[in-house]
Amino acid sequence: MAKSLTRTVGVLATGLLVAGVATEGDAAPIRHGRAAAAVRAAGSDIDDQALSERELLGDEASRRAAVRTGPVFNSPTGGKAKQHAIATRIAQLISGAPKGAVIYVAMYHFSTKDLAKQLVKAKKRKVDVRVVLDYESSRYKAYKTLKKALGSNRKKSSWVTLCAKGRGCIGPKFNHNKFFLFSSTRGAKKVVLQTSANATYNSRDLQWNDALVLRNSGVYAAYRRYFYDLAKQHHTGNYHRIVHTGKYRLDFFPWSSGDPISQHLDRVSCAGGTRIRLVMGHFTWQPIAQRLWRLDNAGCRVQVVFGHIGQSALKDLTRPGGRHGGPELRYLPENGKAYEHSKYLLIDGRYMGKKQKAIFTGSSNYTDPGFHGHDEAMISAVDATLEKQYVANFGTVFAHGKTIKSSDARVDPPAGVIEPDKADDTGENDN
Fold first, then answer.
1. Is 123:116 a contact under the CB 8 Å cutoff?
2. Residue 166, Cβ neighbours under 10 Å: how many?
3. Helix (H, G, I), strand (E, B) or coil at 209
4. Nearest to 8 by CA among 241, 279, 286, 319
5. Distance, CA of 137 to CA of 190 (rounded, Å)
6. What 8-state DSSP symbol labels residue 14?
7. Please, which residues have CB within 8 angstroms of residue 60's CB and are 6 or more apart in sequence?
8. Kind plus residue range of the DSSP H or E element containing 298
9. CA 112, CA 104: separation in Å to the nearest integer?
10. Phi and psi dihedrals of 94, rounded to 5?
C-alpha cells in the first residue's frame, strides 16, 4: 500500500555547514502586500550543558568560514558536531560581527547560557545587540544575563525586551519566532538566519532542526522591519505581511484566516510525477492535510514525516480509497528522545505552471495557532540548489522515521505523537 521509499543518495557533509550558493548581492526592491498552552517548568539552567567558545567555533578554518547562502541542519544523533551544527553556525556569525555592526534576535524560548554570553561578548566589542523574546523566556538565567548586560531601554544602542505576558508581541498567542539578523559579519553585509530551532538545550541536543542563511538585502530589510514591529508590540490578530524581494517570498504572521502553504499547494500539478516532501514538528491544520491527500490521489508522490500530528489531520492523510495509496507517512520521536522539530516543505515538479523546485521554511508549525495566533516568519523560494540540499536532509530524516501505513488503522504511535486538533504548538520538550 504505502509506496516504497526511494532513499535519497548521500547526506550533507560537514562542509555544508558553511557551504552554499554564490553571494546574492542586492535584490530587487521590496514590494509589500497585505493580504497558551502550558509549558513545562524548565528549572534552573545546567552549567555543564553550556558549551565553551572553543567547542562551538571549532578550528581556525571554521572561525574564518565565509558567509554564503545555504542551509544548516543539525542531527540529534551522531555526536556533538552534528547536534550542535546550528548553534555552531550562529556562534560563528556572532563572533564575526565587527565593531559598529548590529545583531537582531527574535526568539521564543531562550535558555542557552553560552548563546547569551556570546551576545554579551559582542556588545563588549561595540556591536549593538537587540533582542526580542517571548515572555516565557523571562524565567531563564540566560535572559537575566542578557538583561544585566544589555539593559531593557530601547532608546539605547543595545537592549533586550519581552513581549507582554500571556500573548505575543504582535499576535494573541505568543512570539514563536526564531531568527537572527546581522548588519555585518565576516565581511558579509545584511545576513539573515531563519531557523526552526529555539535557543534551548533540547533544541540543540534532542531535535532535528533546520536553519537557512541568506545574504540578501531585501530579505534583511523586510525582517528588520518585522523585528521592530515585534519590539514595538503592535498588537493585532491580522498582521498578515507578504513581501516579495527577488526570488524570495516572505510571510509574516499572524494571519486572521487562511494560510500560505494551502495557497502554494493549490498551484501544484501532478502531471509528470511531481514530488512533495514535508517535514513538520506539529501538524494539525486540516486544509493542508486534505490537499496533500488530494495531490497524492492525483498522482503526486507525497511523503510526510512529523513529530506530532492532529487527530483529524491524520484521519485526512490516511483516508481510504486513494488511487495511489495515500501519502507516505512517518513519525519521529526516535527512541523516545530524538524528535522532529524542523518545519519545511519541498516541491519538485509542476508548480505555478511550470516544472521547478521550491522550498518553504520558517518557524511556523502547520497548526491553527501557528498561522493565526503566533508571531512567526516563513521564507519561500524557487531555487533548485537549495531544494537539492534540503532533499538530502529529508532523506536522512525520513529514513529515521517510523512508518504509519495509510491503510493500517492498527498502527499505534507512542503517546504524544497524536494530539488534539486545537493543541497549541508548544511541547514540554521544546525548552
1. no
2. 10
3. strand
4. 279
5. 27
6. G
7. none
8. none
9. 17
10. -65, -45
